[in-house]
Amino acid sequence: MPTAPQNTDELYQALQENDRRPYGRTRTVTAEELVDAAEQFAEPVPLVHALLELQEAYTYGSEPRKSPVVFARLLTLFEEQPDVFDERLRHTLFWRFKWVANALRALPEMPLASLRQWLTEMRDRYEKAGLGLQPYYGQAYQLAAHVGEDTTLAYELWASRARTRLSDCEACEICERALYHLAAGDDERALRTWEPVLTGKESCQEEPARSVSYALLPLLRTGRTDQAREVHLAGYRACRRNPSMSGEVGRHLEFCALTGNEARGLELLAENRNLFDEVDSPLDLLSFLTGAEVLLQRVELLGHGELPAAGYAGRTWTVAGLRAEVHGRADDLAARFDARNGTTAHTDRREARLDRAPLLDALELTLRTRGLDDVAPAAAPVPRATAAVPESLPELILRARALEEQGHPDATACWARLRTLVAAPDYVHPDDPAVGPFVQLCADLLEDEASRAGDKEAFDEAAALYEKAASLYDEAGAPGHAALARACALIPAGEPAEGADGAEAKTAELTAAHAALVRLHEGTPGFAPYQEARVLRLRATALGLRLQTSRNEEHTAPVLAETDLLLDFATRHDIAAQISGALLLRASTYAISGDLPAALTETDALLDRLRAHGPAWHLPRTLGLRGRIQLGLKDAQAAHADLAESLRVAAEWPAGTIDTARLQGDLAEACMHLGRPDEALRHLTRSAELELRHGSRTDAFHSYSNAARLSLDLGRIEDCIALLDSLLTEPDVAAGELDDRLVAQLRLTRARALHAGEDLKAATVEFAALAAESADWDDDPGSHAMIAAETAVILAQSGEFGRAREAADQALAAHVRAPRYEQLSSCLRELARLQAQQQGSEGLADALAYLEDAGGIADEARAAEYEARGRSLDSALAYEHGRVNAFAGEYETALAALDEALVLLGETGPDEDHADEWAECVRLAGAVEGIYLERPAPALTRLDAAVSRLTALGHTEETEELVSLAARLRDQG
Q1: 3-state secondary structure 44-92
Q2: How far is CA 37 from its chain centroid?
Q3: Are 723 and 314 spatial neighbours (Cβ–Cβ below 8 Å)?
Q4: pLDDT, tens only, 497-521
Q5: Are 814 and 781 in contact (CB under 8 A)?
Q6: 552-575 confidence digits (pLDDT tens)
Q7: d(CA 889, CA 931)
Q8: How many CA atoms lie within 13 A of 495 on its CB side?
């Protein structure tokens, strides 16, 4: 939401706009923001509307834990201000008692008594309001069915009653009645009951998708295979990727498994990979996981357990491995529900699904029938279907070239098909003047291969392929194509070498490349318009890369001038893709040069043009750019919205044609700025997975490294370790083929995670190994200093003080070459504390030696005019002298050091961090003076004065320990 509503009219408009969004995180987050906005107004009615919208978002976004909380607020408002609720709002409020009942059933941690108590509350309120009880009895029946009790009486009490205005819709009640008959084993009666829904006569938001998913197997068992096929195709489309309909997706997976469509089932599982992580309803998740396990179990039984499968984010899965994981999680969920309910109903139902035998050997569900042997080696989300590839070879070649001229993503599929055909031994090239000679087609394929190599950052390979393609184009008599291929080979890509010299060399290289492109352009007559436009685009790109490398303001104007040339040419020749390309490049130029408002204005205009005139496949990239610009403008919410829309639009195009990995990474950054680290983690792992599929393994491991560190920061220690273990066992990591510093970063994060998980032994081994390896990093002594310092601390925690001293000395030696004042000072102070705390007076000398080293670092920092970002190095050192001497029993020395620390800190003020440090120093001084030196009077004077000072400044929390210590001293006196 770009800006918060400033009045109630804007709020209502925003609510209406949000109501049009599909259910999911974007809608939910916006609903949460609108509640915050509504609370700013004095009127309660807007808040009621906002809360209703939020509850709906939670309900249909599969977040059952949050829905009752919102309803509780609504109910409180109703009790306190009933006049606020007009007839419609009152109706909605009473309707949503059912939503809460459904939500509570879905949570196994919610006691059964609480569920029954809620139904009693619902009945009492309905009776008090003079409302019919049919909806209450409907919920009572659903609870009985869920628990696994005898439902006969509950069903009759509900089904025999007349419907009321608060009854579920006809379609939903039809489904419940059909499920009652289905549970009784009467497929025919269930299907007769379902008939109005399956034929489309009755429907609602959830129907017929819900009924279809349950009707699939009864339709097969009763011989209605054609109808089963039809409703599967339609019903699946209505529930795919929808967290609130994950159970329905699971039943479609089961249907595939039992009809010989295991390969399609794996494709659907890949498309719904998000459900493993995005379904917050345990009941829905149990249903989805059981359906997925039916599929995975069947694939494994057929001997394909090692096929890749799409599962939980953060690692790759085989069918067998994922089935085992799913089995454990689903068994646990079923057991939790049964424990809550006091029955075995959920375990029994789950076992019945897993024990089902296939109902058909084969049922053709789609025109593209696939077997397990045809499954691709990577399970990727299913994107928009590529446009049909022509069957005729001449048509295919011409179509590929036409799409390539446009820059259309569907060209990829055509080239892939042609590559397969040309590689076949029986390939015969068409004798068609429109198609041209075989050598021209070979050049086309080389050019496509070069483009794909460039996308994977294999730049040298790409340049060589472009040159080879150019030679073949010369041979084919296509000079325009040849010149364009050579132009593509002229762009020097890749990152410059580190440092100013590397950037300067890269800048010069790009300047030379631009000059060469201009010469080539001017010296090549007869370009087709689309070819000349591409050369102009390359000229502008070379200068854009130069600006990006140099960050020199003087390099901005030349880029804009080249961009204007391209835009003018493309406009005159009506080349839509190059028009938008020029506008995108202009916006990027403004962004690189730091003029973010201008860049935003350009992208806004471009988006308007793309939506009106196309090309549509440029939308994801443009939205992604605007998202990054919004991040630069510190509008994370707007960035999130743009990036999320970019991913949604990108899904409409063939996989691999749009850099969705970067979009996922940018979305992760936006989530971090918004304070949503768990969501950021999901996007990071998805980005890494996409990069792996794209072949960008280094980028993928960087993303995984970021994800691992974030999971550690979130306290998800086991997740972090599991992720890193899976990465570090990858073949190229084990073989030493991946960048050694990147692998070291992964291992360092793993060591920290082991430490955080209190596996001190394993952490110590890993830290020590890393410290030894990093000692040889002559080009990066700073990193070695940090690793050695962390190693020293963990060795000291293990009581290995001799090895800790050795590691600390390594850190100090590396620090001389690459100072790390603050970090190393903190490490040395911690080492001193550990030694004094564990060894007392015997360890005092060694502890003081650490503090002497820390004092030297403080002196160096002062001489270098280094300002610590955290605590003052001098005051922190004085405090540690006090603590270390106190541990060693040298109380007079300790008190003197603490008094010195207080002098260095000065009087506390409004700053909370400073107040906390000051209060701790006073506390320790008071304890040393009053308890160990047995001088309570001056200690109490010290403490009481500090309490008064802190209280006057509003730091009441910081006074708590001081007050407690003062009370102890008075009691002892």
Answers
A1: HHHHHHHHHHHHHHHHHCCCCCCHHHHHHHHHHHHHHCHHHCCHHHHHH
A2: 26
A3: yes
A4: 565 678 899 999 999 999 999 999 9
A5: yes
A6: 999 999 999 999 999 999 999 999
A7: 12
A8: 3
